[in-house]
Amino acid sequence: MVINKIEHNYENFHLSIENIEIKENTIIGLVGENGAGKSTLMNLFSGYMKANEAFQIDDWQSKDILFIPSEIDIYEYLTVEEFIFFVHKYSKTDTSINDILEQLDLTDKKDTLIEELSQGMRKKLTLVPMFIKKYDFVILDEPFNSIDMNYIYKLKKYLCLIKSSTTILISSHILDTLVDICDKFILIEKGSIKKSIVNDRNIASMEREIFDRSI
């Protein structure tokens, strides 16, 4: 997939992305400061927003896309199992609800009301669609926020497993959560791509590349 041009204008901000290749079956880390344009780019990729200037990407129309934003309101009056049933019912899938509960490490919480869950457990529930079916392109905005270390490890293993059949774009402010799974980083700054970096899995060198300084 090649991004020829994406342009979107707000009153006080201009996003302009050009000539970036995203290879299939890779995990791409999208990094940058707050306000750099990461969320806008993910919203445009997912179709949640329409670019008001240009959206020219080779081989994009046929993509089956999943976008999980960083903040999602879920139905607090449902139990965990009821919520998963609700999502499962309207998805074409052979995956069982029990399998999804197991993937989320929430089997023992299936009868618990969502309003009684911790913030981290609620965050897990927002990931339900990822375990229901396969997608060509998965976009995850801050997927590791609030989740405990054990499940971060499990989620990373799952992402590395599914990249054989999908392409994954992950945004995170915490470089340490990405450096062991991403194949490449895209650094966005003030609405444009500052650099594209092949990940050598070394946190120190990635920090130097991304922050232009040594720690």
UniProtKB/TrEMBL annotation:
Family matches, as InterPro entries: AAA+_ATPase, ABC_transporter-like_ATP-bd, ABC_Transporter_VariousFunc, P-loop_NTPase
Protein origin, superkingdom: Bacteria
Xref: SMART domains: AAA
Molecular-function GO terms, alphabetical: ATP binding
PROSITE patterns: ABC_TRANSPORTER_2
Pfam families found in the cross-reference section: ABC_tran
Keywords, in A-Z order: ATP-binding, Nucleotide-binding, Transport
Domain ABC transporter: 1-215
Name used for this protein in its record: ABC transporter ATP-binding protein
